[in-house]
Design brief:
- About 5% of the residues have low confidence.
- Helix 4 runs antiparallel to helix 9, helix 6 packs antiparallel against helix 7 and helix 7 crosses helix 8.
- The chain is an alpha+beta fold and 198 residues long.
- The relative contact order is 0.10.
- The longest helix is centred in the middle third of the chain and has 26 residues.
- 52% of the residues lie in helices and 19% in strands.
Length: 198
């Protein structure tokens, strides 16, 4: 399992680049944003998803672990393959995309090339369910007492954020007026808004 590559960019193609690492060139598929932000000869580190199938192996590269985590979450959705997931992750900041899913903003997803209305509906439905399940698990683990922050942190981690990022966003959301009485979904939305502002 290859989890990251760091080296010199040997070549840049239409949908991928080659990273030379210790004399070996790794072809890494990446979003247009990643491809346009680098140049041949530059040093680059990418977090990678190593896809292994019977008929192929491929690396998909991301600048941040947030992008990688969200890419892997998208792959769990029925009908979303690596190319579609890469197009989604590369289209906007991760927090914007997650907020769109939580708020059921189909229009944002449909505006991404390769995403139709039915696929957008499926992404929203399946990922909202995963976030809700994470919140329920956190609620039962934390008990009735201090469950507020734990629920939001678990939900954000289910969306691919690190524990530290999830805790910071959760604390910021819970500091807002009326947050204690808000539902889990409203608190997760508030936390995602703080991540979008960052």
């Amino acid at each position: 399992m290859i989890t990251s590559v760091e080296g010199v960019v040997g070549a840049i193609g239409i949908d991928s680049l080659v990273v030379d690492v210790g004399g070996i060139g790794y072809r890494v598929y990446a979003s247009p944003a990643v491809l346009s932000a680098t140049q041949t000869g530059a040093r680059l580190k990418l977090h990678t998803h190593h896809l292994v199938r019977e008929d192929q192996q491929a690396l998909y590269g991301f600048r941040t672990t947030d992008e990688l985590g969200f890419f892997e979450l998208l792959l769990t959705v029925t009908g979303v393959g690596p190319k579609v997931a890469l197009a989604i992750v590369g289209s906007r900041p991760v927090a914007d995309l997650q907020l769109a899913i939580i708020e059921q903003d189909q229009a944002m997803l449909v505006s991404i090339p390769g995403i139709g209305k039915k696929l957008a509906e499926r992404i929203i439905f399946e990922l909202k369910e995963k976030v809700a399940a994470a919140g329920v698990a956190a609620r039962s683990a934390a008990g009735a007492g201090g469950a507020g922050e734990g629920e939001v942190v678990a939900a954000l981690q289910a969306l691919g954020y690190s524990l530290a990022e999830a805790r910071d966003a959760s604390r910021a959301a819970l500091a807002e007026p009326g947050a204690v009485e808000a539902s889990l979904e409203e608190r997760v939305k508030a936390a995602l808004r703080t991540l979008v502002r960052d």
